[in-house]
Amino acid sequence: MNVRTYNPSVRVGNWNEDIQLEEDTLKDFLEKRERGELSFQKRSKLSQMLFKPVNLSISRDGCVHYGDVVVLQCLGAQDRTNYTNDGPRNTCNLAVTPQASNLLQLTKLEGNCDVSGSTSTEPNLRSSFVIKGCEPNHVKGDKLCYGQDFFLCTMDGEGGDLYLQSDRTTLEKSAPRSRHQAVTFVSQPSALTKWRILYYDPRMRMENEDIPVPANSIVIISHMKTNQDLAVEESFLTRTPFGHREYEISANTYLDSHKAEKDVNRWMLVMGVPGDEICPIVPDSQ
Prior knowledge:
Layout: H1 15-35, H2 39-50, E1 69-74, E2 92-97, E3 113-118, E4 129-133, E5 149-154, E6 163-166, E7 181-186, E8 195-199, E9 218-223, E10 230-239, E11 245-251, E12 266-270
Antiparallel strand pairs: 1-2, 1-4, 1-12, 2-3, 3-7, 3-11, 4-5, 5-8, 6-7, 7-11, 8-9, 9-12, 10-11
Protein name: Cilia-and flagella-associated protein 161
Organism: Mizuhopecten yessoensis (Japanese scallop)
GO biological process, one term: cilium assembly
């Protein structure tokens, strides 16, 4: 094995080849930097893309519609004294996470992508989703009602237009830590990508069937095929490729002693409403 024991300026052994190799390495580095192909440059561009702020849809009538851009938010635990991790569960948003294997090659989100609960509550490309209809009669702009099926999709363009999917747990396919029903984003719609909104109180669920879903209210998001509810696994944290620790997301119904869904199954479809922080009412200057 040839080991350099002298300063590079000392011409010993294959000194000409060593100098040429160092010059070629530096030239290759400079060319990659000019083209923006260095790893830290790719990582910076990806972070700028995924964490780019997104404007949510404005609900003029207080309801959710097909085609609206929303954030799915699960409020923090009401009981702040009982917890299993570093602290009680905090408010989190549903977020898409690209897999680490092809992270630096991405120019937009591509399936399959993982799902996690991000404690960053600012709307961005990771945490903003579009409500899309499953049937031809579900026209963009129509109100989404309790019990109607829908697709939950990422944004178009850089968002990749991916569909939230889940399927029954098997020995080979489940959530990594909780072992519950896994939730992922895929590129093609199917029967596994259909979801529905349920009224949060099971005692009034039948009475609210086919009633428009109000924006910014507590709801249950249920998977059509398996009848399991979207859930935040508060006991299991996962580390994303960005270095963040986020909650694992699964499809699993947690019931209390009254057969009602627990807080980890309760979500809000966050939108802008005239007069709030997202869409403030500007007073007349006259």
